[in-house]
Amino acid sequence: MMANVATAKTRTFTQKARRAQIVQAAIEALAESGYAKASFTRISQQAKLSSTGMISYHFSGKPELFAEVANTVIGQARELTAARIADETTHRGRLSAYITSTFDFVARHPLQARALMEIVRMVRDGRISGLDDVEHTVSSVECLVTLLQQGREAGEFGAFDCRTMALAVRGATDSVLRHHLCGQRTQLQDAARELADIFDRCTRPT
Question: CB 3.0 to 4.6 Å from 101: which of 13, 81, 165, 188, for a disulfide?
Answer without folding.
Answer: 81
